[in-house]
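Input record, target 12 of the design panel.
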């Protein structure tokens, strides 16, 4: 019988005959193999139903009635329902090297890490991802003991903050004072809940052919000028555009700036697609691309100039959450993640290291960080939705 506390992978393996019922409710994507392997191990049925506003009592009752009517009761499959020890959802430029680095290190110390259950992925798709489910999770046991995540996501939203952060379910693991490169903008969490790991630094890339006789942008506010109408590409697609970019524009210039920026955005692209477009020798698709510093290093077009804004590259956070009371148990993992060697890997991939002994001199001085006062003085989830609505109202009129 199903109670709702089972994870999705368990249900898929134990009751494959019920998957069609989930498909009828529009939940079929969760049961595709690639998604089961990513999030099915530690997402409970009740969480999925709540996030999709499906009455869990009625739906689970209907599932159990089907099971009662089946003559074959041997479908139950023994499976491990243990939660992950470590999950990481990383910026695209970091995922593969970090995963290989972790796997190599863990294999070298089998005694310490042979039982470690981990998942390392790129920052998952916004349409079907782990992040929206966080608003419905009520039990901290549904979460891995150590979580690494990217961007201003649902870990900063009011439901998660009130349910877990403010109640002390997590505590920062910061064995040293942060490297001054990021700490000069007060990057570390003053309340000691989030462990700041690195940042995805966002810069401008300017196609000088497409720019023409317009003035080279120097500050982020320059991108709001009318002469850049329909001339900028940023990360996004369909009805989603990058919050790491939109939130700083709102903070610095208010909601009016969101409409101005929407007029100037030509389209949304993945950063890898931006690189391909900007590298075209016969001219790219936009005058300005907003992309991570890592991806800008792939540019090979002499007509393209990387601009580190004078008011700072935008620092999109990459952080850790460690369950309270788990730091000692996971000390081998945490010491590895926060080590100088890991910091050097980050630095070499053009992500700033927070380790004090790592040299970040290859990065320009100026950093733009939203700040903890902003994150804690706003209902971040609601603000993101308000910004998206204002942006799309203008965008859809184009």
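The sequence produced for target 12 reads:
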């Amino acid at each position: 019988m199903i109670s709702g506390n089972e994870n999705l992978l368990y249900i898929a393996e134990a009751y494959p005959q019920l998957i069609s019922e989930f498909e009828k409710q529009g939940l079929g994507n969760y049961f595709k193999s690639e998604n089961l392997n990513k999030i099915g191990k530690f997402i409970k049925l009740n969480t999925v139903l709540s996030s999709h506003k499906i009455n869990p009592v009625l739906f689970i009752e209907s599932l159990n009635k089907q099971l009662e009517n089946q003559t074959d009761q041997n479908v139950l499959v023994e499976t491990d329902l243990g939660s992950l020890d470590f999950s990481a959802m990383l910026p695209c430029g970091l995922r593969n090297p970090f995963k290989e680095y972790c796997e190599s290190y863990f294999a070298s110390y089998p005694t310490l890490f042979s039982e470690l259950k981990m998942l390392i992925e790129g920052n998952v798709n916004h349409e079907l991802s782990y992040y929206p489910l966080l608003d419905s999770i009520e039990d901290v046991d549904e979460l891995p003991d150590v979580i690494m995540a990217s961007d201003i996501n649902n870990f900063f939203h009011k439901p998660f903050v009130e349910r877990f952060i403010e109640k002390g379910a997590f505590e920062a693991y910061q064995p040293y004072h942060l490297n001054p490169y990021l700490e000069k903008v007060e990057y570390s969490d003053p309340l000691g809940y989030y462990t700041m790991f690195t940042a995805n630094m966002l810069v401008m890339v300017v196609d000088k052919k497409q720019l023409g006789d317009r003035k080279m942008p120097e500050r982020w506010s320059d991108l709001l000028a009318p002469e850049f109408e329909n001339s900028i590409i940023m990360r996004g697609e369909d009805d989603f555009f990058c919050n790491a970019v939109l939130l700083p524009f709102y903070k610095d210039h208010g909601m009016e700036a969101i409409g101005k920026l929407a007029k100037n955005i030509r389209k949304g692209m993945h950063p890898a697609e931006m690189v391909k477009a900007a590298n075209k020798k016969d001219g790219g698709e936009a005058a300005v691309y907003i992309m991570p510093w890592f991806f800008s290093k792939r540019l090979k077009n002499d007509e393209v100039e990387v601009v580190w804004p004078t008011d700072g590259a935008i620092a999109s956070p990459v952080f850790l959450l460690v369950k309270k009371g788990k730091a000692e148990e996971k000390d081998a993992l945490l010491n590895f993640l926060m080590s100088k060697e890991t910091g050097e890997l980050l630095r070499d991939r053009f992500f700033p290291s927070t380790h004090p002994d790592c040299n970040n001199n290859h990065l320009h001085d100026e950093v733009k960080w939203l700040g903890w006062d902003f994150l804690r003085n706003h209902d971040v989830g609601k603000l993101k939705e308000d910004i998206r609505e204002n942006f799309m109202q203008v965008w859809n009129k184009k």
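The chain is about 40% helix and 15% strand.
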